[in-house]
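Exercise 7. Predict the structure of VWDE protein from Formicarius rufipectus.
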Amino acid sequence: NLSLHPVITPELVQGHVHLKCTYSQPSSTPPLQYVVLWWRLSSPAKREQIHHEATPEAFSYLEVDGTNLRLGDTVSCTVTAFARDTPEQQSLPEESKGFYAGIKFLPESLEIAEDGKEHILTVLSTVPIACPEQEESCKITLQLSTEDLGKSSQFPGPPDIVLSACQVDLLQVPCSEGSCAAATVTVTAVTDFAQDGNRVSRVRAQPVGQRDVLWRAYTPKDVKVTVRDLPTGNCYSFTDPHIITFDGWRYDNYKIGTFLLCRSVARLFEVHVRQWDCGGHRSATACNCGVAAQ
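Solution. The predicted structure, encoded as tokens:
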């Protein structure tokens, strides 16, 4: 076995997205010929051959043309080598790792809690972004949306997750570590004070305003976000104010005036209460008569 180690990398060739299968060229005489087969994984268990090439070079190119090879495809290449004068003596075929061409989210799924924390979601392109002619900006604009899978379209209700942006731009940068363009967005679970169990939502990204057919015809795979329910705290102030705090402590407040009932130290949230005389001459009693919440 020759240890060819084929690897697929993305490349822009004359403004068009190509994939390049590169392999080690053993220092051997006589010179070698290579047979390169390109495959598309149509499902995890099934693959189809999309290109076949015999070449003396230590690489093979294939264009992501939107027909033979599309964005969203996972591709691999298999390489076999033989000496030109003995074509019947072939090396064992060696296959590259699968290369996913398109946009993907990292992480591929999220589990978050209704605790107000922001979680970073990275959206990246594994292939370079071409610059349209007469335009300086090389970018893909993605429209982001959320969908709650547990809610019907007739009765959607409030969302379970919110994003920090509705659109992101993927700007072209030199490809490195599997990314040719990337942007981040934060995802936060909506604190809804409802014991509605763990809910699943999804975040979708759709290229918009693209003249390039390659991107216009492409819908990236969405990312699933599971929202874990957290129990909600309760506190009370009722009648001639009997007060029960979040931790179950009970006391009475018969004073007249405006009071700060509750304030969060973690976020902008507070409740004020106004208490007024409601006992008359017989007893000094105050009752809740107004409330203000921020």
